[in-house]
Design brief:
The complex is a heterodimer of chains A (about 210) and B (about 270). Chain A has about 210 residues and is of the alpha+beta class. Chain A is about 60% helix and about 15% strand. In chain A, strands 1-2-3-4-5 form a 5-stranded antiparallel sheet. In chain B, β1 and β2 form a beta hairpin. Classes of the chains: A alpha+beta (about 210), B mainly alpha (about 270).
Amino acid sequence: MPSDISFAAPLNRRAFGGILLAGGMALALPRASHAQSADAARQLVTNAVGEVNRIIASGQPESAMLAAFERVFANYADVPTIARSTLGVAARQASQAQLSAYTQAYQGYVSRKYGRRFREFAGGQIEVTSVQPLKSYFEVVSTAYLRNKNPADVRWHVSQKGGQAKFFNIIIEGVNMLASERTEVQAILDQNRGNIDALTQALSRA
Amino acid sequence: MMASGHAALRAVSKLGAAASLLALAACGTPPVQTGTNDPQEQVNRERHEFNKRFDTALVKPVSQGYGRVVPGPVRTGVNNFADNLDLPGDALNGVFQGRPVAALENTARFVVNSTIGVLGIFDPASSMGLRGKPTDFGETLYTWGVGEGQYVEHPFFGPSTERDTYGAIVDYATNPVRLLVPSPERSIGTVAEGGSKLGDRYEYSDTIDSVLYESADSYAQTRLLYLQNRRYALGGGGEASGDDFIDPYADAGGAAPADFIDPYEDSNAQ
């Protein structure tokens, strides 16, 4: 097109090089931080799995292990976001105090529920195979190798909100833990006639 | 258990006929369904309670007895034997689905395990890299564009969908092993199938118990687990392998997978 030619003519080589460099920088900068975020997401999963394996190998009594699992869950998962999500519409009616009490109870409940089944994971390895962007998050794709079981596809959804990488969902062979947790919490909430305080009590006892 | 030469010839001609159906299967694979379609929930819930009582009274105790009495390696052999008998059907479905690589892998696996693996009791094929591609006619219907239909929980057989129910009936009626193997030998396969089911109930006891007996709404959990895992399997498992290769870079810019939940964008988020 003629307009392109007339536009290109006044551009000397240096200016052109400068624009190209600036453009390249503009493209390269977000990409570099993107790669860092991807590395952080991968590191998060590797570290979390490493800590869980160390706890299992430590051979401490089960109660101590469950407490240790809870610390890992609190450090590596975005527990407030997960907890609020499991509440569904009920989260909107909850006061700040009710929400934080529920979050605390939910954190212990999840750690005990899955922590009690740590024996199934004993000697298990998780190998991160890839990290890919997913909307504004990352999906860390891994394969779980458990004793006497076929390798399982495990995907971790990791967010960087608040500057720190934390996972907010795990998908095992297509089974979405957040969806499963939502179903479970909604059922317990229904059993308690929609009362959040009663739900919090029920989770603390479970 | 081995098919006679004549029977094998018939199987080959059946495969030939199946290959002509390939043209039919050439239409695109539909997107995997999302959400829950369960208008018969009341009936399904009653059946679910029945299935739980059946499990409590019979399946669970028998599976525990089976697991304790029969040593692990023997249970593995029973599972291998039963799995091996599924392979001809899997291969046939692979042809129907227009997935020749999967069909060939299942055929090769069947040949190796039926011979070197002593009628399928051992599984030398897996260590040769022939892990097999388990499939069924429900998946074939999916590749032909048939919709998932309603969610169904059947008495005794458990969770399924309308599509998978028709698929299971067709798989039973057209199972090459059932059609080709004479009746007294065939019953060994049925017994092995039962043993394999009990072995699975024993092996995955903790997981199954936690869903059936420890969750607040075991019906809803079962439905969720079944639908999600089934859809994942139909979507090719997201694995970049063989004929269901998925380009992760093509995925990245496109729509998020159906199993993606964004808790930050909840209507209830602040």
